[in-house]
């Protein structure tokens, strides 16, 4: 629903990664007073590469991490640059920078820094400042506006600062807190075990026998880059029915082997797989994904993380009992991220200003329950609640705020890359056959206003 009211709120945004930056822009555009808290010295979130990981717990067992970014040195984007940009700020090639369609991670950091400069966002950001606590000032009462106590600590400061905000937007990302499998003997295994969160370069694994657990994006990337350095790489996957692309890579490298899941780890260094085979390994790298974690957030149980389901959240964004005063940007996975974050940010901004209203608490809860039920019917485990992989969902979401639907060329380019990666895992970032779709993209309003000399 749309109304004419326009109220300005004091809003705290936590995180200056892609989600926090676009939220800052949208909220300020809507007339709110915004403070962005960023624990790091610079914007970028995951894209701010952190080479030093020595002080991090290798398995990330602690609730409070020392390193945010899980990006490794060689990482290149898995999606082409054309589909990644915010709707009014295309991710184009710039002189003297990485011109590839699937550039290295630094290129995305530069894009985000450009975004920040172009829209003058830096002045809203308090760098080196960690939010340690967010809690309600009063218990929520119907018809009464909620307010939030935010306690933060600047790196060099002795004391925490305590402030009150009308609203809090959580944009802290969810690719930092390692998610680990539970394997018999894991605690007793005395050799090296780590999560991909702290994997940076292949050199420390020279001549080692390495087990890489998990064959999704990081597992594949890390496995492939270790083949030139490690003695043997043993990829342990949930299913041996892997993609054509991965099969081809495995058959190309004599030191890369595929195994089923691990059954148990043994004190003598043996790793026993569920099919009864075993190897003796030097290192195990768990590429088993990440968990949602909000160690600073105290909602008196109104939002919880249960087996990686953050909830209850209406449309993955608002906890019905605390909406719109508390919101989350960037929770969904397996979407074209940046435009989706942008639509979330717009919706939050307009709800806070009173321009739009949410459905009733009952309706929101009902919608969440229906969503959970539909996932159960589809056999999707709870920990994949926020894995959406669904363009229609983005369009439905966009309709709430009159945000444009994802352009057909974005969808098509995305699908074409997924198909290519499935078949040509080791080459899809450099060899593709989508020039027609690319031309369509360049002619679309997203790019066309930049002029032909841009490409
Ligand atoms: C290995 C890897 C590869 C990826 N590849 C791709 C890809 O190819 N394409 C793609 O679209 N996405 C990719 N992603 C996903 C990536 O996380 C998103 O692109 C994007 O960074 C999410 O943005 P965000 O702002 O939500 O979170 P983040 O980028 O994680 O930003 C969160 C920010 O919050 C800050 N923060 C956290 N807690 C606090 C606190 N308590 N106080 C203050 N500040 C805090 C952090 O320092 C950080 O700056 C990849 C992720 C990983 C790990």
UniProtKB/TrEMBL annotation:
<comment type="similarity">
    <text>Belongs to the FMO family.</text>
</comment>
<dbReference type="GO" id="GO:0050661">
    <property type="term" value="F:NADP binding"/>
</dbReference>
<dbReference type="InterPro" id="IPR036188">
    <property type="entry name" value="FAD/NAD-bd_sf"/>
</dbReference>
<dbReference type="Pfam" id="PF00743">
    <property type="entry name" value="FMO-like"/>
</dbReference>
<dbReference type="InterPro" id="IPR050346">
    <property type="entry name" value="FMO-like"/>
</dbReference>
<keyword id="KW-0285">Flavoprotein</keyword>
<keyword id="KW-0503">Monooxygenase</keyword>
<comment type="function">
    <text>Catalyzes the conversion of methylthioalkyl glucosinolates of any chain length into methylsulfinylalkyl glucosinolates.</text>
</comment>
<dbReference type="GO" id="GO:0004497">
    <property type="term" value="F:monooxygenase activity"/>
</dbReference>
<protein>
    <recommendedName>
        <fullName>Flavin-containing monooxygenase</fullName>
        <ecNumber>1.-.-.-</ecNumber>
    </recommendedName>
</protein>
<keyword id="KW-0521">NADP</keyword>
<keyword id="KW-0274">FAD</keyword>
<keyword id="KW-0560">Oxidoreductase</keyword>
<dbReference type="InterPro" id="IPR000960">
    <property type="entry name" value="Flavin_mOase"/>
</dbReference>
<dbReference type="InterPro" id="IPR020946">
    <property type="entry name" value="Flavin_mOase-like"/>
</dbReference>
<dbReference type="GO" id="GO:0050660">
    <property type="term" value="F:flavin adenine dinucleotide binding"/>
</dbReference>
<dbReference type="GO" id="GO:0004499">
    <property type="term" value="F:N,N-dimethylaniline monooxygenase activity"/>
</dbReference>
């Amino acid at each position: 629903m749309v109304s004419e009211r326009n109220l300005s709120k004091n809003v705290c945004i936590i995180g200056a990664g892609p989600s926090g930056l676009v939220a800052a822009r949208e909220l300020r555009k809507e007339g709110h007073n915004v403070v962005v808290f960023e624990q790091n010295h610079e914007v970028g979130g995951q894209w701010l590469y952190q080479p030093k990981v020595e002080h991090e717990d290798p398995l990330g067992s602690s609730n409070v991490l020392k390193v945010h970014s899980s990006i490794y040195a060689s990482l290149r984007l898995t999606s082409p640059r054309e589909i990644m940009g915010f709707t009014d700020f295309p991710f184009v090639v710039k002189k003297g920078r990485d011109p590839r369609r699937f550039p290295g991670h630094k290129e995305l950091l530069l894009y985000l820094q450009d975004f920040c400069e172009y829209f003058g966002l830096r002045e809203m950001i308090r760098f080196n400042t960690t939010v340690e606590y967010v809690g309600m000032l009063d218990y929520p009462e119907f018809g009464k506006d909620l307010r939030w106590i935010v306690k933060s600590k600047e790196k060099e400061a002795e004391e925490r600062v305590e402030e009150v905000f009308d609203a809090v937007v959580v944009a802290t990302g969810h690719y930092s807190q390692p998610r680990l499998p539970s394997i018999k003997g894991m605690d007793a295994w005395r050799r090296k075990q780590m999560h991909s969160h702290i994997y940076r370069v292949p050199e420390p694994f020279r001549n080692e026998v390495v087990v890489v657990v998990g064959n999704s994006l990081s597992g594949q990337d890390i496995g492939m880059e270790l083949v030139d350095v490690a003695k043997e790489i043993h990829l342990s996957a949930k299913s041996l029915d892997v993609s054509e692309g991965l099969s081809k890579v495995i058959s190309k490298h004599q030191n890369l082997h595929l195994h089923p899941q691990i059954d148990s780890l043994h004190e003598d260094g043996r790793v026993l797989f569920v099919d009864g085979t075993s190897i003796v390994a030097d290192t195990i790298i768990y590429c088993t994904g990440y968990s949602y974690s909000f160690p600073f957030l105290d909602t008196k149980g109104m939002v919880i993380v249960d087996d990686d389901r953050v909830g209850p959240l209406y449309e993955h964004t608002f906890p019905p009992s605390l909406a719109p005063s508390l919101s989350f940007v960037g929770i969904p996975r397996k979407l074209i991220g940046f435009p989706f974050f942008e639509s979330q940010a717009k919706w939050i901004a307009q709800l806070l200003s009173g321009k739009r209203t949410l459905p009733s608490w009952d309706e929101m809860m009902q919608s969440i329950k229906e969503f959970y039920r539909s996932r159960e019917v589809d056999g999707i485990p709870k920990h994949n609640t926020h894995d959406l992989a669904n363009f229609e969902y983005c369009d439905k979401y966009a309709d709430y705020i009159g945000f444009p639907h994802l352009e057909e060329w974005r969808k098509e380019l995305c699908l074409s890359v997924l198909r290519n990666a499935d078949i040509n895992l080791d080459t899809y970032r450099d060899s593709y056959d989508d020039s027609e779709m690319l031309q369509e993209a360049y002619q679309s309003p997203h790019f066309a206003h930049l002029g032909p000399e841009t490409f």
